[in-house]
Amino acid sequence: MSVDEGWPAPPAEGAVTGRVTVPGSKSISNRALILAAIADGPSNLTGLLNARDTTLMRSALVALGVGITESGATVTVTPGSLKGPASVDCGLAGTVMRFVPPVAALADGVVAFDGDEYARERPMDVILGALRALGVQIDDGGTGRMPYSVSGTGSVRGGKVTLDASGSSQFVSALLLAGARYDEGVDIRHDGKPVPSQPHLDMSVAMLRERGVHVDDAEPNRWVVAPGTVRALDTAIEPDLSNAAPFLAAAVVTGGSVTVTGWPAATTQPGGQLPEIFTRLGAEVSRDADGLTVRGTGNVHGCDLDLSEVGELSPVIAAVAAFADGPSYLRGIAHLRNHETDRLAGLEAEFNALGGDVTQLEDGLAIRPKPLHGGLFHTYGDHRMAHAAAVLGLLVDGLRIENIGTTAKTLPEFPDMWSGLVR
Ligand SMILES: O=C(O)C1=C[C@@H](OP(=O)(O)O)[C@@H](O)[C@H](O)C1
Ligand SMILES: C=C(OP(=O)(O)O)C(=O)O
Which UniProt keywords apply (predicted)? Predict the structure, then answer.
């Protein structure tokens, strides 16, 4: 058996300076694919992310009977009549394991879902329970987890459903995205602690409205999707701003300057909050026609940050905070325990193994900066743990990243792009 000795994280030789172009947003790409698959005609998608999560989404939709072809930079999605039997591999993709079952419910036949070993740990009970309440037959052996199968009859009644989406916004987005195709549409109420990741909910609603679907989200914790057609739409996908985060962070911690090209003027991505977050951490942010530029000032400030809306940015922010002039508190992110790994436990364990002082809070992390030493940083199959490790490795000699290949979940080019920027 070969032992993974880890990818030597390139140390910064000085201030990291450069320009980076990141590929398409995972969250927009997978929503665009789902919505195109249930639309009233073919859609042409450009700038679609090509990574493990989008490949899994494409395969899932093709297995259900959707046509997907590629010509140059354009991916054309042609809706077909949705049919089982089919098997869907979800890998570790939350957007596949949560967003595809509500679409599979519209298929005629049985659709079986499975995924990576750790995917079986990610909660599914809320979305499976909601689908049952909307009239869908699901078999999960009573576990509320993967593997499960959805037995569709070609249509879904839909209607009212109450759920607790405090564990993941994806439970709500999943129903929103397919709901217009249900006979009665869908009327979702959330009952529980706050739903995280508001930008991702806004993204779902905005993308539905762009395709002519009527969504009423005026009442807090309630979303009503009218039954109707999802219009086909040719779409250009924005760059993935969450994947831009580690590159910008490199400027923050080394006192350098990094520009991410094509930064959208307006966005529903959580990364839209990065300018404000990096400013609070001590950096200077500017934008021009070329993109967004973050300049490190030589000082990183310890901060108390509520990251509940932007949880997926937390690992990289934690890495920046490890070099701050005082402690930082990252709050509102208890749901990170449900991500690709238990990110709070993972960040605590791995930072502390390098000599750090990180403790889990009930809903987040306390990070007290300390001198760190090298070692093997475990990623737990989590792309964003690898991003965090790479940021640490800029200033910590001898840091090696176990399974750097895990970055292929959303950015297969990460190791090359990172080495290209840092060296
Ligand atoms: O809808 C989406 O595309 C996502 C929603 C968020 O999930 P949670 O609300 O579970 O954090 C986010 O963290 C994930 O990376 C992508
Ligand atoms: C939480 C994440 O992914 P997923 O879509 O698998 O939930 C993430 O990318 O940070």
Answer: Amino-acid biosynthesis, Aromatic amino acid biosynthesis, Cytoplasm, Transferase
Longest alpha-carbon distance in the chain: 61
Helix-helix angle 170-179:26-37, to 10 degrees: 30
> What's the sign of the alpha-carbon dihedral 200, 201, 206, 209?
positive
- Paired residues of 162 in beta bridges: 189
Quick check: 294 and 287 in contact, CB under 8 A?
no
Pocket test for ligand 2, best of 241, 343, 384 (most atoms within 8 A of CB): 384
CATH superfamily of the 26-236 domain: Enolpyruvate transferase domain (3.65.10.10)
Amino acid code (one letter) for 357: D
Ligand 1 centroid to Cα of residue 325, in Å, is 30
**Which pair of structure tokens corresponds to residue 407?**
């970055």
Identify each DSSP E strand in 2-122 by its residue range: 7-8, 17-20, 43-46, 67-71, 74-78, 86-89, 108-114
Q: For the segment 29-86, what is each residue's pLDDT rounded down to a tens digit?
A: 999 999 999 999 999 999 999 999 999 999 999 999 999 999 999 999 999 999 999 9
Alpha carbon distance 231, 40 (integer Å): 5
Q: Which of 49, 339, 342 has most ligand 2 atoms within 8 Å of CB, for mutation?
A: 339
Provide CATH 3.65.10.10 ranges for the chain.
7-23+239-422, 26-236
Question: What span, in angstroms and rounded, lies between the C-alpha atoms of 213 and 249?
Answer: 38
Give domain 7-23+239-422's CATH superfamily: Enolpyruvate transferase domain (3.65.10.10)
Distance separating alpha carbons of residues 91 and 96, to the nearest angstrom: 8
171/124 Cα distance (integer angstroms): 8
- The answer to whether the Cα torsion of 263, 266, 268, 270 is positive or negative is positive
Whole-angstrom distance, CA of residue 100 vs CA of residue 62: 12
What is the per-residue DSSP string for 139-196?
Answer: E-TTSSSSSEEEEEES----EEEEE--TT-THHHHHHHHHHTTSTT-EEEEE-SSPPS
| Residue carrying structure tokens 């879904």 | 156
- pLDDT tens digits for range 366-378: 999 999 999 999 9
How many whole angstroms separate alpha carbon 176 and alpha carbon 215? 8
Global pTM exceeds 0.95: yes
3-state secondary structure of 325: coil
H or E segment and range at residue 320: helix 314-321
User: If you ran DSSP here, which 8-state letter would residue 396 be given?
Assistant: S
The whole-angstrom separation of Cα 315 and Cα 386 is: 9
